[in-house]
Structure formats: C-alpha cells, structure tokens
Amino acid sequence: MTNLEITSTLPSNQSVSVPRFGLGVWKSRPKECFEAVKSALSLGYRHIDTAAIYGNEADVGAAIKESGVSRSDIFLVTKLWNADQGYDSTLRAIDVSLSKLGTDYVDMYLIHFPVTGKRNESWKALEKIKNEGKAKSIGVSNFMVSHLEELLKETGTVPAMNQVEYHPFLQDNDLKDYCIKKGILLEAYSPLAHGQKLEDPRITALANRYQKSNAQILIRWSLQAGHVVIPKSKNPVRIKENADVFDFVLSEEDMKEISSWNENFRTCWDPTSVE
C-alpha cells in the first residue's frame, strides 16, 4: 500500500480491474457535475461514480466526451434505482442510463439498495446485462452480510463490489471480512463522513504531523485499509485536494490508531434494518 498512485487498481472477481480512487457525484447538480467530472479527469481521476437517482448521468457523459480522455481509460459506474428494480424494469433501466451517459456500456452496474422482494430478480437481470456486454462487471451497494448471503444462495455470480458507507467512525468489520472471504471488493462511499467528524482533534493532530489536511488523512486511511474510495465533491479545489494523497504513507501505528475509532456513526441511510 506504500506505492499507490491515482491510477492504482484492484483486481475484481469478474476479470475487471477497478481504480482504487474515484469521484462520487451524489448531490452534484447538472452544471456542477459537468464541471466536477471534467476537473477530476484533468487531474488524473479515472473512476467516476454516478447513479440513476442522482439525475446527472447526462452531465457525466457529456463531461467524459469533452474531457479528451478516451472512454476506454475511464471506469464508469452507475446504479439501478429502487423504483426500477425487478427483472424486466431493470433491463429497461440500464438502457435509459446508457442513453443518458452516451455510451454503450458501463464498467460496473450496481444495485443501489437491497429492496426486499425485488433484489434477487434485479440481480438476475444484471447477470443478463453483463452477458450482453452492457456492463463489464456487476455489483451491489448498501448490502449487509445477510443480503449478500441471500444473494449468493440465489445466483452463481458473486458481486464484484459492494459499495457501502465506510470511514473510521463507521467500520463494519464483519461485513468487510465477509467481502474479503467471498472476493468482493469493498468500496467506501462517504469516506469523510460528510464532514461531520472532520474537525475531530485526533484527525487534526495527525494532519499536523503529516502536513496534510484532515480530509487527506481520512482518504489515505481508507486507501491503505484496502478499500476502493470515492470521495464526493463538486469543488475543483477540493477535488484536487482529495487526490493529493499519494505522496505520503500513514505509519502502521497510526493506521491502528485510526482503526480504533469506530463508533457505528452512520451519516446516510441505514440498510441494516432491511430484511
């Protein structure tokens, strides 16, 4: 983990390499999203994460086209929204997303949330989508161990990735260990806990010692912990700052210290209550 770069990847169980670091565009309004994606790609980001429910797929696609970066060099992710879950509706939803993105494939397609009664049928549709080449790989988001166990009983395809909220203040080690055991990449969204813990004096002390920002300490911890990380920002200055984490290494002692901060502090929706 010491020689990481912005283009470093992790191999997935579906023969697709996933860039370790990317840009999330949740809550980025259309024009903001367009500029954010262009800025990120100009800085060397190659992993862009959007979703149907974000309402900005078209702007992501337009920014990619204007960026001058080859589509084949970009790892593009979008997600199936809850209202579109179910077998036939999932097959329709991917076509809508691809049309908005202006591409004939995504590098990974995720089930956004484990909707009870529909998630398994949605997954079967994702398998078809992958077989047809509309997605190079498929995975899930917000799935807990129970959801993954159920899914694996119903299918022969293990998700390539599970995208969940993960940061030092919310560490589900049981989920992480399960994903490692099954060969599922863990992707950390909200790695900065939406800024709600950013001024914690323990982070500030580390930031001062490494001469980095508090946000950079949290992002670097997540990278060294083995996660795929997609910090969200629409501010070009922050997008650049978030990427400036490849010129230092947290010591083993500091990694252990940060890993002891868990307090089950969840800032987003809680999938643990879904059956």
From TrEMBL:
Q: Does NADP appear among the keywords? A: yes
By its UniProt entry, which CDD domains does this protein fall under? AKR_AKR1-5-like
List the InterPro entries hit by this protein, alphabetically: AKR (IPR020471), Aldo/ket_reductase_CS (IPR018170), NAD(P)_OxRdtase_dom_sf (IPR036812), NADP_OxRdtase_dom (IPR023210)
Q: Which residues bind substrate?
A: 112
Q: Which domain of life is it from?
A: Bacteria
**Pfam families documented for this protein:** Aldo_ket_red
- What's in the keyword line of the UniProt record? NADP, Oxidoreductase
Query: The NADP-dependent oxidoreductase domain covers which part of the protein?
Result: 22-262
Show the GO MF annotations: oxidoreductase activity, acting on the CH-OH group of donors, NAD or NADP as acceptor
The protein's site described by Lowers pKa of active site Tyr is found at 79
- Catalytic site residues? 54 (proton donor)
| Similarity remark | Belongs to the aldo/keto reductase family.
In its UniProt entry, what is this protein called? Aldo/keto reductase
Q: Which organism is it from?
A: Leptospira bandrabouensis
